[in-house]
Amino acid sequence: MRTSTAATAARPRWRERLHEVIFEADTPAGRFFDLALLVAIALSVAAVLLESVAAIREQYGPTLRIVEWALTIGFTVEYVLRLVAVDRPWRYAVSFYGIIDLLAILPTYLALLLPVTQPFMVIRGIRLLRVFRVLKAAQFLREAELLVTALRASRRKITVFLGGILTVALIMGTLMYVVEGEAHGFTSIPRSLYWAIVTMTTVGYGDIAPRTPLGQLLAAALMILGYSIIAVPTGIVSAELMQAARPVSRQACPACGAEGHDVDAAHCKYCGARL
Amino acid sequence: MRTSTAATAARPRWRERLHEVIFEADTPAGRFFDLALLVAIALSVAAVLLESVAAIREQYGPTLRIVEWALTIGFTVEYVLRLVAVDRPWRYAVSFYGIIDLLAILPTYLALLLPVTQPFMVIRGIRLLRVFRVLKAAQFLREAELLVTALRASRRKITVFLGGILTVALIMGTLMYVVEGEAHGFTSIPRSLYWAIVTMTTVGYGDIAPRTPLGQLLAAALMILGYSIIAVPTGIVSAELMQAARPVSRQACPACGAEGHDVDAAHCKYCGARL
Amino acid sequence: MRTSTAATAARPRWRERLHEVIFEADTPAGRFFDLALLVAIALSVAAVLLESVAAIREQYGPTLRIVEWALTIGFTVEYVLRLVAVDRPWRYAVSFYGIIDLLAILPTYLALLLPVTQPFMVIRGIRLLRVFRVLKAAQFLREAELLVTALRASRRKITVFLGGILTVALIMGTLMYVVEGEAHGFTSIPRSLYWAIVTMTTVGYGDIAPRTPLGQLLAAALMILGYSIIAVPTGIVSAELMQAARPVSRQACPACGAEGHDVDAAHCKYCGARL
Amino acid sequence: MRTSTAATAARPRWRERLHEVIFEADTPAGRFFDLALLVAIALSVAAVLLESVAAIREQYGPTLRIVEWALTIGFTVEYVLRLVAVDRPWRYAVSFYGIIDLLAILPTYLALLLPVTQPFMVIRGIRLLRVFRVLKAAQFLREAELLVTALRASRRKITVFLGGILTVALIMGTLMYVVEGEAHGFTSIPRSLYWAIVTMTTVGYGDIAPRTPLGQLLAAALMILGYSIIAVPTGIVSAELMQAARPVSRQACPACGAEGHDVDAAHCKYCGARL
Predict the structure, then answer these.
(1) D204: nearest CB among B204, B234, B238
(2) Could you tell me the pTM of the whole model?
(3) Chains near A, with 3+ CB pairs < 8 A?
(4) Is the ipTM of this complex over 0.85?
């Protein structure tokens, strides 16, 4: 995400400095900028949360609106500075973090531009999009990449797993719709499917629950299936992480032919010959 | 599932071509056929789901019926073509995918053939069997076989695990029936057994919940047991998948013929001969 | 559980034969006996379950009582034959399976012996003890021993884990009792403790749920803790099973000193020398 | 936690003896002291629990108060003796166990000192702090340290995992607030966030549940995500525990001093010198 300093050679002095502060965390100014940004993100998300509580909205509404506008202007300045600091502004604008940065400021302006005749729901929905600002904090979670890599490696297996779960949920949902019927809350197959997922993932709200003995028998089978099947993705990720954690070189010893050396080995651990 | 091209030598040119399109995914026509089939399956399942929603059924009933019949005729043509394309139609008809293909078209015709005097429930139940068409998509999940293999290898352990769960659920269910009694919703042992499974698998609907202190104590013990015991199948599958991932050389000993050597082995571990 | 045939040398012919049929599964008669026993256990448990359903009890009560008495007499005969067949009857009688066998027949006789003046609850409780007959089937689950061994190896770690869970549940339960108070269903600390276990194990009945914002915050923290902490026993059992699955000999090669040989290896896999 | 006997050389005979009894478990007196302490802790926690049950409080209130005061005086004596027995009382007083020991006695005295005009809630809250005495038992769980070490090693990954969960919960909570609205129980974003955590961790109280089809679709997606994502911490801890279990030789290379060799290594993998 951070361009190498080698690429900044041709920039004027002030743009180089700006880039350093905004995109790099190695200098005191860069570290301070990152910290300020984190605080602003936290404040902004807190403002969205608090504004949604009726009691707080009524009492502190104007204060929250001021905080909201101050943060929006701050994020706007940050967005413009980022565009100025990089060599290819367009490429930044369409990158993952560029879009997140735009999404962080757009809702406040949009809510202003919309005619008053718009239904309140639409305006509120747009304004609440500001909560996506929390994704701006993702840049600080470098370790997340490791986990994402492990998940991506198991992607196909996980897709198959999800396909299997949905197939089972669909079939069980249809059976329950027939068995329990609309009188017991299973009013349609999509709703039965929702029930099947609630049950299979062991969430179990209890808003819909089987009432006939046959329905309870089927439900019990689905629960045990869901309870046992969780072992599959867990096993996949465990095996994947174990595999990733223990890199073994594929190089055989030229002297004795032994294999299974660590990737950092310079000599054969059995005969001492140079690898 | 796909017969080798060697076996198709004696077929007429058109049957060979048909087989290629229907059973193989290597040619553009074959890929298009597979894609069309997937879309048809998705449409068909969506139709079953939508038809079960009362509001949609009332408004779009006739449209859904037309879609339904078009798809049924399409699947019927596909089924006949599959029977024509293979060398041994009967063997295909009784295979897993052959039965699935038949089940995908039968319900629509059956619902038509049944006398109107049949109760509505039976007709609806039969028509909803069409949802099993989703299993036709299983052919596209080749990776599923890997998972199925891992599960099959742990079959006996999983059976024992299920047996253990059911035994615990039965005993706890009976105890709760005695402790809580019929007044608190535990109206019979089968119902208490259902509660025990709901609790042990951590689903927890809350439609039946213990109300006496002793019942809550027993329930808490059952929850902690269920919560801890999930580790067992997870551990089994993890270990199984790790085992499968551990590389074992396919080389047989030239002297004694033994197999299962480590990849780093230079000598047979049973007779000491050089590999 | 099965005494070796060597120990039966001094027994008369018929007792030897009896022992073979009852305790061994290698002969056709032994296999038939085992099968008949399994069927009888299943029938017996089914009878207990069905009798607890009010509607069935009223209609088929006498039939169930006949089945019940036939099975009890059968199990009594089996119990006596087992005592006769073994060389040390007393030792069998106090063994795990001996006690189970006794528990399987005792409740029916006890219920008969109790005076009619006893409250119905006590009699019913004793009669339901018959459900423990299901434990007689445990003998057929030889694989269970493997799992039990793995669990026993992790015993101390699991105890610590349970101690930790109970400590967290106790502290969170007390906090919630103070925060939510008796008005919101948290009527005492034991009840709050029950809620904490329901929540931490992700069962979540919903019969007691926090209603104040602070209570919901604490509850959310407890949920995430419980959700994450499940990883600990799973990891323990996984690691234990992996360890058990891959036995590696501790023997070093006398010629080249290499270690890590499989336990069944007769020759060093690196240099071929005899181990 | 236990100072070495070498450090006690300068102490008078009786202090040495006292230290032995209180801090060490090797002598009969020390073992008896530990056992008495455990019983006192269990009694004390039981008293707090029982006192919170209204029915018991009314009937056995005076008895519980006597038990409470006897235990508080006992713990006070123990606390003073511990301060006397160690060489640096202040260091003990501010250590983890020192603070726990102080917290175990403080609440009872505090409740006495507070003016009667204090609201009852505050007094009750302070008195219930006595439940923290359960942490005094933590000293007996030496194995806990192993688990804590494994958890600490995965600390950063677990933080990232929690950050990811909270981000997903925040975004889904906001979406549900917009989709379901205040009429269906999602009265504010903090409350929706609470719902999202209840759902994602598969607790599923059912006190708040989606009622619109779109809300149920989003909820189903969140459930499946939460159900699958549990695999991540489990995999992390499994891999971490496996890693800890994998034996690494403690031998340093005599030539270059490098460590971390496999147990079967005969030569240093970095410089090739004989180990």
Answers:
(1) B204
(2) 0.81
(3) B, C, D
(4) no
